[in-house]
């Protein structure tokens, strides 16, 4: 199963702890031999998800350019062309989406969730009680 991730980067330390726990639960519910995490590998939830997938023994694919150390763990890197938007490219590679999102409209994550649901992908909404963003 190819599972993608997108999420807010500006999270409090407590939210990081809560989100990491929920990401681990989602990842560990999937057999490692069947799991491929697809991530832009940006700071925060996208990197935490990638680390959880690798720690669980799953495969990792990266979408876009990144110099992160986890890139060495990737079995594939999907480069984006200059006119290629991240969200449609990500959603085209996955069967499920993990969205670390506060539920507010007007963000890239909100648009990704709406599009994923429109095309029939299962979306794991991750925003544990007590979570907060540091900036709007």
> Biggest sheet, in brief?
6 strands, parallel
Cα(first) to Cα(last) distance is 33 Å
Oligomer category = single chain
Q: Reading side by side through the largest sheet, how are the strands ordered?
A: 4-3-2-1-5-6
- Radius of gyration computed on alpha carbons: 14 Å
Number of strands: 6
The percentage helix is 25-40%
* Mean pLDDT reading: 94
Q: How many domain units? A: 1
Instruction: Give the ordered list of helices and strands.
Output: EHEHEEHEHE
Low-confidence runs of at least 5 consecutive residues: none
- Structural class, please? alpha/beta
Classified by CATH, the class is Alpha Beta
| Second-tier CATH architecture | 3-Layer(aba) Sandwich
Instruction: Quote the beta fraction.
Output: 15-25%
Shape: globular
**Number of helical segments?**
4
CATH topology: Rossmann fold
Topology at a glance:
Elements: E1 2-7, H1 13-28, E2 36-39, H2 45-56, E3 59-63, E4 76-78, H3 86-91, E5 96-100, H4 108-118, E6 122-126
Helix pairs in contact: 1-2
Describe the structure concisely:
With 136 residues, this protein is α/β, with parallel strands linked by helices.
Molecular structure report:
It is built from 4 helices and 6 strands. By secondary structure, the chain is α/β, with parallel strands linked by helices. The protein has a single domain, classed as Rossmann fold (3-Layer(aba) Sandwich). A 6-stranded parallel beta sheet has the order 4-3-2-1-5-6, with helices on both faces. Helix 2 links the parallel strand 2 (36-39) and strand 3. The longest helix has 16 residues, at 13-28. The mean pLDDT is 94.
